[in-house]
């Protein structure tokens, strides 16, 4: 390849690599649809089970079909007994996302109900199983780390209500369950985002559903993808009070520091999900009697959107911003915000895996090599070390913290 003729699309921005029948985003108009259905209609009327059916089958279910899928999901909520033991053995330092990623991967070795089905049906079966079990993993891990016994799922509760019940031990009120269910619907799919793309890359190798979902979980864990809602809530807690928003904002802008919850790679207007979440966050806050976090969010949003820097660059409110006060008002710990994203997005991830398998081609892009060429080979004794100090025994034993500092720095950043 000739560097003079190759156009590098960093971050693959603007690159279209496949067709999809699942979700469509119009960034200029601020529209999102699943299989042709507007997200506002789905958020107002669809359950998460209906939304999952829509993404997996690309049509809305009839009554009998929805009942079938709901029963299928509910019968798959429980974890294998061996997996409980593994969860108990996780170190105290494990984060919720590390636990979720690890247990989701472990399930592939014990969740064998689908193994004898033909390939497509097996993938759908495993998609249902993972969608049902992710809420159980997250709720159970949160209780275990707080020295509380996990709570078995209930078959008589819907997807969102059952999660809140397993998390708190109390059956949620209908309004709270509905708010969380709407959040799940809003986050179920969103075009070719980073975690969805990574899942499809794994699926394109003919990797199984578990491998693809674990890939997606690893991608979601990154702060530039799934971590923004947690960061948004942390900045609201840092502000502390609605009356302190203005001072915090001015200092943040003076230091040129990022404000989380604004801006999107695709949307040039307000994220259509943000409008719905804003209304939900306000409703839940007023019902709870604690409007502090919603008021902070509303005032900070007002300052951001009125500032010329954001206005000129068309940086608007995104889905993560009002996710933060909504989930916080529902009593969900801040470090569960990314796993909550995964619980919602699992339907979309698995739908994309099924779609990739249906008309597969290995995803294998190329890169323009920009390193040195024609380097002369030197024997070991003729090579000059960059690190003069001899590694001590602890370094040799595989403890990087005891190795010379230069060995801990990626080669790209070594001095010339």
Note the topology.
Elements: E1 23-26, E2 31-34, E3 37-38, H1 39-45, H2 48-57, H3 63-74, H4 81-88, H5 96-110, H6 119-145, H7 159-168, H8 174-186, H9 194-204, H10 209-220, H11 228-239, H12 245-254, H13 272-288, H14 292-306, H15 308-312, H16 319-329, H17 337-358, H18 393-396
Antiparallel strand pairs: 1-2, 2-3
Strand order of the largest sheet: 1-2-3
Rg for CA atoms: 24 Å
The CATH topology of the largest domain turns out to be Citrate Synthase, domain 1
Assembly type: single chain
Shape: globular
**Count of helical segments?**
18
**Overall pLDDT level:** 89
Give, in order, the helices and strands: EEEHHHHHHHHHHHHHHHHHH
Roughly what percent helix?
A: 40-55%
Number of domains: 2
Number of strands: 3
CATH H level, superfamily name of the largest domain: Citrate Synthase, domain 1
* Helix/strand class: mainly alpha
End-to-end separation: 27 Å
Give the name of the CATH architecture of the largest domain: Orthogonal Bundle
**Tell me about the biggest sheet?**
3 strands, antiparallel
């Amino acid at each position: 390849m000739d560097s003079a003729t190759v156009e590098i699309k960093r971050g693959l921005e603007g690159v279209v690599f496949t067709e999809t029948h699942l979700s469509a985003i119009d960034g200029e108009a601020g529209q999102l649809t699943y299989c042709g259905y507007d997200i506002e209609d789905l958020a107002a009327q669809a359950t998460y089970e209906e939304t999952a059916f829509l993404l997996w089958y690309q049509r809305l279910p009839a009554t009998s079909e929805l009942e079938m899928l709901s029963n299928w999901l509910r019968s798959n909520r429980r974890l294998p007994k061996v997996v409980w033991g593994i969860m108990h053995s996780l170190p105290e330092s494990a984060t919720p996302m590390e636990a979720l990623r690890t247990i989701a991967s472990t399930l592939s070795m014990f969740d064998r109900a689908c193994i004898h089905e033909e390939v497509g049906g097996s993938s759908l079966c495993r998609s249902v199983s993972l969608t049902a079990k992710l809420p159980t993993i997250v709720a159970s891990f949160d209780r275990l780390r707080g020295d509380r016994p996990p709570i078995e799922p209930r078959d008589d509760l819907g997807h969102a209500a059952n999660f809140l019940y397993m998390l708190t031990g109390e059956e949620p009120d209908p309004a709270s369950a509905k708010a969380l269910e709407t959040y799940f619907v809003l986050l179920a799919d969103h075009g070719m985002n980073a975690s969805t793309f990574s899942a499809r890359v794994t699926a394109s190798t003919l990797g199984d559903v578990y491998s693809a979902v674990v890939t997606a979980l690893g991608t979601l864990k990154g702060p530039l993808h799934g971590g923004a809602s947690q960061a948004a809530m942390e900045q609201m807690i840092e502000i502390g009070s609605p009356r302190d928003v203005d001072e915090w904002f001015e200092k943040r802008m003076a230091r040129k520091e990022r404000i989380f919850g604004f801006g999107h790679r695709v949307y040039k207007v307000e994220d259509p999900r943000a409008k719905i979440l804003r209304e939900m966050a306000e409703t839940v806050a007023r019902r709870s009697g604690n409007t502090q976090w919603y008021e902070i969010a509303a005032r900070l949003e007002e300052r951001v959107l009125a500032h010329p820097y954001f206005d000129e660059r068309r940086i608007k409110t995104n889905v993560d911003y009002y996710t933060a006060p909504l989930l916080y008002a529902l009593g969900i710990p801040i470090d569960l915000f990314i796993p909550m994203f995964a619980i919602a997005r699992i339907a979309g991830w698995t739908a994309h895996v099924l779609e990739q398998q249906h008309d597969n081609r290995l995803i294998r892009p190329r890169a323009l090599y920009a390193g040195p060429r024609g380097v002369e080979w030197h024997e070991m004794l003729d090579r000059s070390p960059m690190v003069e100090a001899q590694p001590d025994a602890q370094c040799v034993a595989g403890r990087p913290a005891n190795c010379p500092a230069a060995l801990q720095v990626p080669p790209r950043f070594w001095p010339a």
